[in-house]
Amino acid sequence: MNSESNMLYVVMLGASGAVGTETLGTLLQGKNIQKITLLGRSHISDLDNAIVEQHNINITDASSYENFIQGHTTAICTLGVGQPSKISKEEFIKIDKTAVLDFATACKKAGVKHFQLLASVGVSPTSSSFYLRTKGELVEALKALHFDRLSIFEPSMILTPTNRYGIGQAITLKVWPLLKPILLGGLRKYRGVPVHILGQAMANNIYNKGDAYEVLQWDDFYN
């Protein structure tokens, strides 16, 4: 019999995306999870599970969801713009940085102990890439919140079973897996990862005893 202290209460932002969907699917098969709260702009249809609660929120207004976070032990954020190049820099910052940081801040205030973020390999506040620099600034801000445990997932190319974004992604999905044999040593972190493997890794990581701050890359997704 599991003690109450071993029970997990998970709140997710971004569960309707490709990685979020896979993460949620694995969580629903997990042990010791008493409750999963999904926060998003719309409900996920055909999801009927006794431990799941869904709330429609304004992702840019923490007051629309902060009351739903109380009582959770773990937060998972897979929110992100699918194609950053298709929107303005201001809009990208609003969704991928500000909205995520607001969510994390609300989680910290509500007593969430463990926060997990889907980021990207190469994120750094000093990167010359606007995308990687913005994500790096977000990670630094999350570290400053001092969660008991902060897990940053840094995949390279996420390989989905279907092409969602046109010819560019179609080519990438064909070519990237072919690079695996030459991405050795320190380059292993740039290997593409199937979306279901990444989602499973994010879900299963909540059971691990990780460090106060941990960065997880390609090898970690398969451990």
Describe this protein's structure.
Helix 1 (18-27) crosses helix 6 and helix 3 (89-110) packs parallel to helix 4 (130-143). The chain contains seven helices and nine strands; from the N terminus they run βαββαβαβαββαβαβα. The protein is globular, with a radius of gyration of 17 Å. The strands form two sheets. Strands 3-2-1-4-5-6-9 form a seven-stranded parallel sheet. The protein is an alpha/beta fold and 223 residues long. The two termini are 27 Å apart. Helix 1 links the parallel strand 1 (8-13) and strand 2 (33-40).
Mean pLDDT value? 89
> Ranges with pLDDT <50 over ≥5 residues?
none
Distance between the termini: 27 Å
Apparent shape: globular
Strand order, main sheet: write it out: 3-2-1-4-5-6-9
Q: DSSP helix count?
A: 7
- Rg, please? 17 Å
Overall structural class, as computed from helix and strand content, comes to alpha/beta
